[in-house]
């Protein structure tokens, strides 16, 4: 297979919802860590969108759309998220996409109102929320999960798809796609058990070395 073929196969794998969620949940199996991510992932996304909404527009839009739609960096990101999510899961993805578009519109309105009232946007608050939420997530991995996040192995999950996966966990409570949930949870249990066994073996080997 050519290099291009491997690239295409790898990218296609990114849109296999069941495999992607299984991989994600294998790194988020501890209840406390899962709760921390549930509380932090969407604020991270909202604050990121807010910060990107403070960037200068690269093209003018119709005045009737202002301040709801601004052609800033956030718009590019939102379009990527919307398309990615809907391809991954047409139903949960559409719900997540609607939430993201709402956050984008809300951010543009808040920024426009703040600039009109004070002359500047409240970007410092958004940055503080963003950084704090990331720190809390790393604490969740280090203290409770005791496993580093797979940022290098799954960059797309850290940057793009984690909010959708968290939303799926919420929807599962209401019975969404129960069969897929059962398959994922069974495989996650196997993956976590394998990781713990291999970690114990490495620890034992290091003590006897």
Mean pLDDT: 92
Measure the end-to-end span.
41 Å
Rg to the nearest angstrom?
A: 20 Å
> What oligomeric state do the depicted chains represent?
single chain
Instruction: Give helix % range.
Output: over 70%
How many strand units? Answer: 0
- String of helices and strands: HHHHHHHH
Shape label: globular
Number of domains: 1
Biggest sheet statistics = none
- Sequence stretches where pLDDT stays below 50 over 5 or more residues: 3-7
- In percent terms, what proportion of residues is strand? under 5%
Number of helices: 8
Secondary-structure content class: mainly alpha
Description:
It contains eight helices and no strands. It has 209 residues and is mostly helical. The protein has one domain. It is globular, with a radius of gyration of 20 Å. The N terminus is likely disordered.
Secondary-structure blueprint:
Elements: H1 3-13, H2 17-26, H3 31-53, H4 73-88, H5 92-118, H6 123-145, H7 155-173, H8 178-208
Helix pairs in contact: 2-8, 3-4, 3-5, 3-6, 3-7, 4-5
List keywords for this structure.
about 210 residues, mainly alpha, DUF962 domain-containing protein
Summarize the structure.
Helix content is 77%, strand content 0%.
């Amino acid at each position: 297979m050519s290099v291009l073929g491997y690239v295409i196969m790898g990218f296609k794998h990114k849109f296999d919802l069941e495999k992607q969620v299984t991989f994600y949940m294998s790194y988020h199996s501890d209840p406390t860590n899962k709760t921390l991510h549930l509380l932090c992932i969407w604020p991270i996304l909202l604050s990121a969108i807010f910060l990107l909404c403070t960037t200068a527009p690269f093209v003018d839009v119709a005045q009737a759309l202002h301040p709801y739609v601004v052609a800033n960096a956030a718009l590019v990101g939102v379009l990527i998220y919307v398309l990615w999510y809907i391809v991954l899961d047409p139903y949960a993805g559409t719900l997540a996409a609607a939430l993201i578009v709402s956050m984008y519109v809300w951010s543009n309105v808040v920024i426009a109102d703040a600039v009109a009232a004070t002359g500047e946007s409240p970007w410092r608050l958004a940055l503080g929320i963003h950084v704090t939420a990331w720190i809390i997530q790393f604490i969740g991995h280090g203290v409770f999960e005791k496993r580093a996040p797979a940022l290098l192995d799954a960059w797309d999950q850290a940057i793009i798809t984690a909010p959708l996966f968290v939303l799926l966990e919420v929807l599962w409570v209401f019975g969404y796609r129960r069969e897929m949930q059962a398959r994922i949870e069974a495989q996650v249990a196997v993956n976590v058990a394998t990781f713990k066994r291999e970690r114990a073996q490495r620890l034992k080997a290091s003590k006897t070395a």
